[in-house]
Design a protein that fits this description.
2 copies of one chain form a homodimer. Chain A is of the alpha+beta class and 355 residues long. Chain A has 2 domains: 202 residues, CV3147-like domain (CV3147-like fold, 3-Layer(aba) Sandwich); 115 residues, CV3147-like (Beta Barrel), CATH 2.40.390. Chain A is 32% helix and 28% strand. Chain A contains 12 helices and 17 strands. In chain A, the strands form 4 sheets. In chain A, strands 15-14-13-12-11-17-16 form a 7-stranded antiparallel beta sheet. The first copy, chain A, has a 5-stranded mixed beta sheet with strand order 4-3-9-7-8. In chain A, a hairpin with a 2-residue loop joins strand 11 and strand 12. In chain A, helix 1 packs antiparallel against helix 2, helix 1 packs across helix 10 and helix 4 packs across helix 6. The longest helix of chain A is centred in the middle third of the chain and has 17 residues. Chain A starts with a strand and ends in a 16-residue tail after the last helix. The interface between A and B is medium-sized, with 23 and 23 residues. Strand 8 of chain A pairs antiparallel with strand 8 of chain B.
Chain lengths: 355, 355
């Protein structure tokens, strides 16, 4: 167990920005929100899944919507409202919170309701990275119920998806509601048991994000190579180095979708990389060949090791593109059915990132 | 109190088709569904609002969506599922059902859950006609809460709008969900008290619809003028007689919207009537001048007095257009703010139908 400090939030913002593969919402916004909650209501404890009491009732919260919108329409306490609506619906009180994904602002969104409710956050998440759609969680992929799910906006609207055919239907209905709510809202789903979390969540990812962020900070402090620090901390490889020459981006259907084109520099001079994204980076093509395919992680960082989320990509940025292997829960047949390239409409086989 | 017979359903289908002003869903479909439920689970009693016990808990149910879709995707028992979801949410059991509107299939939709749950239906509704949007109910206009509201589809999806800024927000969220559910779903809202129903519902409209339908049937049986029978039964006037020369209709945003053009015959030879609709007929223009304006009722019938709902309008039909004054609850300032021409986007003042 560890107690979150403001320094931890700085480190997590970097680490979860990298693991978020361009999505999960702006990490800077998340850091400020979590810091504000901690200052106002007190810090939160991060509890390893192994240390959960067997009778724990764990609720997963997250922000749903387009990061382009989430950057401007910043949530207040609606993940707490969603938690309370879910608790009222099931007639139980949560004893711990769980991040929906380890990406951007979503990696620390659970700190807000946890701080207000004075309960710990589990050191785990439902993706081991970030993904754009609700059903793309290890929990549901491995049999945890996807409903009830509560959704709240900042205006005072609260809805509960009480029964759904499957998690894709929850996504479909919640996305339609989110668009009406202004393309950014907060949800709570569960509660889950300790056993369910231990069996189906990606463990220790908050610690991973914090340690990854610290490694980048330390490299910056001594003017060392931040890319090397990242690769030393969590594996992976450099996919490409270059300058952004074009960004095509649209906020559509409650998502930020688009493509970024990068012209190679240094060792990649004369080559081109195209990365397609739907909130998160999905596929990296080098000179027309796929070199990193979802669910493997594609992360764009600047020369200080700072991750650049998809809604902040701009013409002219000098960037390094990194690839990391996906958590093992995603590379099974069941996992690939939910988050493999076909799930995003690509007629492409997943092949693991080459070492 | 009266107990519904199959003959009553035949009569209500005609009467509620007329009062539905083109909307409320196809009355024929509603008749078949209600008949099936009554045959399977037993008939239902129609209870006057005055006869409700003071501790009654009354739930209003209805179908939401585009009638063009509702004609093909016929509901099964999802208004009953919506009722049960609402009851589970509030922790109370309904003691009576209430029709959302006295129009088309919706006028008898409440018979289905009432028959299954073996509870009576209140002889009243929330519109005294049909309207396309959820917030257009006398209940909400006169202060009854618009949430919680449960929405269910035929696939197994159930949602609850537990809190909403206002009834327009319920409409907005429920419509977005309905579109995902396939543009036709069923809802339950309440429960209301006996006092709320007596104070805010339009009373005795099931009896009105039945008696109006009987008057048309009797006129048909003796080859008398069915138009005259309608006007004798519930007031109103003939607005126009003619032949449909064009129908423009689209299923959009979860509604059936469009315009019908009628070329005058007989006394109206040389004149033209245009009627604009959004599920229901909204404004009738004669030679470019508005002659009947929402919330007043515009009904299109054929020469046998059979009402023609907007999704069944076809080129070549010989029709009579009738106008009826709106229920008094709608012609107040509060009422017109919710269902007057401005509420439908028209820059037009309401002026009551001329006698």
């Amino acid at each position: 167990m560890w107690r979150v400090t403001e320094a931890d939030l700085e480190a997590i913002a970097i680490g979860a920005g990298i693991l978020g593969t361009g999505g999960g919402g702006n990490p800077y916004v998340g850091k400020l929100r979590a810091r504000q909650a901690i200052r106002e209501f007190g810090s939160v404890d991060i509890l390893s899944p192994e240390d959960l009491p067997d009778d724990a009732r764990i609720v997963c919260v997250g922000i749903i919507g387009a990061p382009t919108v989430g950057n401007e329409k910043i949530p207040d306490y609606q993940s707490y409202y969603a938690l309370r609506a879910l608790e009222a619906f099931v007639g139980e009180t949560a004893t711990a919170m769980l991040p929906n994904e380890i990406g951007g602002t979503n990696s620390v969104e659970s700190f807000v309701p946890a701080s207000i409710a004075r309960i710990p956050v589990v050191d785990a998440d439902g993706m081991g990275r970030a993904f754009p759609e609700f059903q793309m969680k290890t929990f549901f992929t491995y049999g945890v119920p996807c409903a009830p799910m509560a959704l709240a906006d900042e205006k005072g609207n609260t809805t509960i998806i009480s029964e759904a055919v499957d998690a894709r239907w929850v996504e479909r209905m919640a996305r339609a509601l989110t668009i009406q709510m202004g393309s950014a809202a907060c949800y709570a789903v569960g509660p889950m048991t300790a056993d369910q979390v231990r069996r189906t969540a990606v463990p220790h990812t908050l610690t991973l994000a914090r340690d990854l962020g610290r490694a980048v900070q330390q490299a910056r402090n001594v003017h060392a190579d931040t890319t090397e620090a990242i690769l030393n901390s969590c594996g992976g490889k450099v996919l490409f180095q270059g300058k952004i020459s074009d960004v095509e981006r649209r906020t559509t259907g409650g998502f930020s979708k688009g493509t970024v084109l990068i012209e190679g520099t240094r060792a990649d001079q004369g080559h081109k990389m195209t990365i397609e994204f739907q909130n998160e980076n999905l596929i990296a093509w080098m000179d027309g060949n796929p070199v990193c395919i979802v669910p493997d992680l594609i992360c764009i960082v600047d020369e200080t090791g700072e991750p650049i989320t998809t809604e902040l990509l701009r013409y002219g940025f000098r960037v390094t593109v990194l690839g990391f292997p996906a958590p093992k829960l995603w590379t099974t047949t069941q996992g690939l059915a939910v988050v493999g390239p076909n799930a995003f409409g690509y007629n492409l086989e997943y092949s693991p990132l080459k070492g």
